[in-house]
Design goal:
phosphatidylcholine lysophospholipase activity, globular, Rossmann fold, 11% strand, single chain, Ester_Hydrolysis_Enzymes, 5 strands, signal, alpha/beta, SGNH_hydro, disordered N terminus
Length: 218
């Protein structure tokens, strides 16, 4: 009898372990599941009918954190950056482009690379983003993805360089403006410490240099 009870308990434990293993199935991370992304995306959607703006700044946190209207001294520039965003995330929110937008400045891709995506996938998504704007006759300005700082350069900067080379080649072949801030902010292919506090995001000095570089396109 005791043997039967122990056997039953062992079977129950094993069965429970199987169920636990099933429940621990890993779900692929997607920015689209992030609350901040959802909140910003929904806000952009309800503002899509706003016809005041003619220029869009599109990207991730590096775009999101900037006060573009003040940096550019232009109240017709809208900020469409979302912290943590990826090329896939951008593709899923291009339904909220305002009708008066005439040009877009895009910088996206670093989060894809930091999340382990291959350059092929990032590049292909980027081309889909560009096509969406070109189909609407919106002038596209591709901004090179910025290099990461010293503490994480080895893991990601080679892929960033490869992505930028592909984007620059595509831009040249398709008469698209390509703006490379890396010679200014990362001349040695590493984001300079004087422009960042965390080796990824930018400080005020860096944003000022960025704004000065793109003012010529307005």
């Amino acid at each position: 009898m005791r043997t039967k009870i122990l056997s039953g308990l062992l079977f129950a434990v094993l069965l429970s372990g199987c169920n636990f293993a099933e429940k621990q199935e890993v779900v692929e991370w997607k920015i689209q599941n992030d609350p901040y992304y959802k909140h910003k995306k929904s806000q952009f959607e309800v503002l899509a009918m706003n016809e005041k703006y003619t220029t869009m700044m599109l990207g991730d946190s590096i775009t999101d954190e900037a006060q573009w209207d003040e940096l550019l001294n232009n109240d017709k520039v809208q900020n469409r950056g979302i912290s943590g965003d990826t090329t896939s995330g951008v593709l899923d929110r291009l339904n909220s482009i305002s009708s008066n937008i005439q040009q877009v400045f895009i910088m996206i891709g670093v989060n894809d690379i930091m999340r382990g995506k291959e350059v092929d996938e990032v590049y292909n998504n980027y081309l889909k983003i560009i096509k969406t704007f070109k189909d609407k006759n919106i002038k596209v300005n591709i901004q090179a993805t910025l290099y990461i700082g010293e503490t994480r350069k080895a893991d990601f900067n080679p892929k960033i360089e490869e992505l930028n080379k592909r984007l620059e080649k595509y831009a040249s072949e398709n008469q698209i403006t390509f703006i490379n801030l890396n010679p200014i902010l990362a001349p040695q292919k590493v984001l300079k410490k004087e422009f960042t506090f965390d080796d990824l995001h930018l400080n005020g000095t860096a944003y000022k240099l960025w704004a000065n570089e793109i003012k010529k396109y307005f």
